[in-house]
Amino acid sequence: MEREGRTESFKAQAIEIASLAVQAILYEASCHPSPGLVSAISTGAHSDMDYFTFLDSASALISPLIQCAHAGLSTESPKEIFQTIRSIGQLGEQRMFAKTRGVNTHKGTLFLLGICCAAAGKALYSGAGFASLRSIIQDMTEGLVEGELSARNQELANTDPTKLTHGERLYLTHKIEGIRGEVQRGLPIVFDIALNVYQENHDLSLNSRLIQTLVTIMQFCEDTNILHRHSLETLREVQVRAGRIIALGGMKTPAGIKAIEEMDKDFCHRRIGPGGSADLLGVTVFVALLEDLFNGR
Ligand SMILES: CC(C)(COP(=O)(O)OP(=O)(O)OC[C@H]1O[C@@H](n2cnc3c(N)ncnc32)[C@H](O[C@H]2O[C@H](COP(=O)(O)OP(=O)(O)OP(=O)(O)O)[C@@H](O)[C@H]2O)[C@@H]1O)[C@@H](O)C(=O)NCCC(=O)NCCS
Ligand SMILES: Nc1ncnc2[nH]cnc12
After folding, report:
1. Which residues line ligand 1 (CB under 6 A)?
2. Keyword annotations for this protein (predicted)?
3. pTM of this prediction?
4. Contact by Cβ (8 Å): 120, 290
């Protein structure tokens, strides 16, 4: 009876964690004006997806995210947990592509939130609590860039470029570490910068807090979506412009709001889609929701 009780409890905990991840995904896709991104009122810089594509995609991610959280609720080491969730994530990507008819809505999101859900499960199971989340993420992904990119440099160089992912190609040409580098470093943009912005600005509406956090992230994100579709110059332009908007007050001032609206129009016209920043916004919301869960709020 006791074993059955524990199993049911782990299932309930995994569902609780994953439900926060899906909530974060929905918040991210809904907020506006999100410069160049898909939102509840805009298709952003994209012609192949809209808000409902993201809602469809979110529904496909519920099961893999529960499985990832459940994988963390175990005695396995963080490294072993990461290996377990890679296969869950690859199947989850297939579910996503099936649901979106081949459109990449959340490949990065699934990777990041899958890892974070598993780390949350481990933090809960080990009793180490919310404070251990970041170090568990780092332990899970230690050596990821070396293993998947730098150690494969020659292999990648000998591979037909059309067979490489955007991330692999950008590492080969510019040594850009992208999403792998961000998560291996323990998501510094989320934990050291974005989380505080999202949690502190309670004088703003939820929608405004989300946009304020997104633009804050855009200053620092080495976004491979912008790099593969445009250039390093365009990425630097985006980062500098985001910094100027934050200096204007962002969503806290009429001038900042006007600048964000102008940025959105410009990015939609120029087809600049900061999908990497969108992913980090979703992770920021998830981490904030998780902190409330762990602290019983
Ligand atoms: C580990 C992988 C997920 C890495 O895949 P890949 O080699 O392709 O790596 P990247 O291209 O570098 O990045 C993949 C996505 O990560 C997001 N991203 C980009 N830069 C950053 C960053 N600096 N920090 C965080 N996240 C970043 C981004 O994802 C979002 O944008 C996508 C939608 O925008 P769109 O422009 O349409 O994207 P594309 O379709 O690629 O463009 P077009 O071809 O249409 O022009 C969407 O994915 C958002 O999430 C990058 O796209 C992968 O190799 C892997 O292992 N996957 C398996 C899953 C797994 O392991 N899961 C584990 C736990 S479940
Ligand atoms: N809202 C969004 N629009 C475009 N790409 C995204 N990737 C993740 N969220 C996104």
Report:
1. 68, 85-86, 88-90, 92-93, 104, 106-111, 114-115, 165-168, 178-180, 182, 221-225, 229, 273, 275-276, 279-280
2. ATP-binding, Nucleotide-binding, Transferase
3. 0.96
4. yes
pLDDT in tens, 32-63: 999 999 999 999 999 999 999 999 999 999 99
Minimum-distance ligand 2 atom for the alpha carbon of 279: 8
Q: How many residues are listed for the chain in this entry?
A: 297
CB 64 within 8 Å of CB 111 = no
Q: Can you name the residues that pair with 42 across neighbouring β-strands?
A: 39
CA angle 159, 164, 167 (to 5 degrees): 130
Domain containing 217: what range?
1-295
Q: How many CB atoms are closer than 10 A to CB 94?
A: 12
Indicate the Cα dihedral angle 43, 48, 148, 87, nearest 10°. 100
3 state DSSP class of 42: strand
- Residue 263, CB-side half-sphere exposure with 13 Å CA sphere: 30
Give how many domains the chain has, as a whole number: 1
pLDDT tens-digit series, residues 259-283: 999 999 999 999 999 999 999 999 9
Model confidence band, residue 1 (pLDDT cutoffs 50, 70, 90): low
Q: CB burial class (10 A; 0-12, 13-18, 19+) of residue 152?
A: middle
Cα 269 to ligand 2 centre (Å): 16
